[in-house]
Write a structure and sequence with these properties.
single chain; 153 residues; alpha/beta; Rossmann fold; 7-stranded mixed sheet; globular; binds adenosine-5'-triphosphate; binds magnesium ion
Length: 153
């Protein structure tokens, strides 16, 4: 499995991160999978919120809430359903299976997004039916974030 670095961004604010997510979302299609990793509070959910805004428009803000407690949030928007997972509390492949992740990847109207995939070390690329993008966010300073997006081939 090799990866191709697609883009690097420097974000200066939460709004910036959200906009970078919305801009990135333009290339996403049904069956694609996006993983997000980075330390607690790095801005993963903010980035996802930009993706949701791109597909679901401006109604119903805030666009994405952290699914840390619910594990999965579902956004049905037009002909696409964005399933937003958070694996922070998961440990095993069985946990990932039980929360409906693999069903989501196979759903013919779905785009799947998951925070904290590093919590369960499995070969995600094997399961994605469409393109697999990995988003890594690093905290540089108080409001500064480094965002790197890779396409995993
Ligand atoms: N440049 C920035 N980009 C994103 N968030 C920022 C930035 N600067 C400050 N923040 C703040 O950092 C927090 C990021 O929260 P968010 O829930 O998006 O992080 P997260 O990576 O999803 O956290 P978790 O690991 O708990 O899932 C928010 O409170 C946000 O206001
Ligand atoms: Mg989060």
């Amino acid at each position: 499995m090799s990866s191709l670095i697609l883009q690097k961004f420097e974000s200066a604010s939460p709004e910036d991160t959200e906009s970078i997510g919305a801009e990135f979302a333009k290339q996403l299609k049904i069956l694609d999978f996006v993983s997000l990793n980075g330390t607690l509070g790095a801005g993963k959910t903010k980035f996802v919120s930009g993706i949701i805004r791109f597909f679901c428009g401006n109604e119903g803000t805030p666009y994405a809430a952290s699914p840390t407690y619910s594990i999965m949030n579902i956004y049905k928007c037009g002909n696409i359903t964005v399933n937003h997972f958070d694996f922070y509390r998961l440990k095993t492949l069985q946990d990932v299976e039980n929360c409906g992740f693999f069903d989501s990847l196979e759903g013919l109207t779905n785009l799947t997004v998951a925070e904290w995939t590093d919590a369960v070390r499995i070969n995600y690329g094997r399961y994605a039916a469409g393109n697999y993008y990995s988003v890594k966010i690093k905290i540089n300073a108080k409001e500064k974030r480094h965002i790197e997006i890779e396409k995993i081939l």
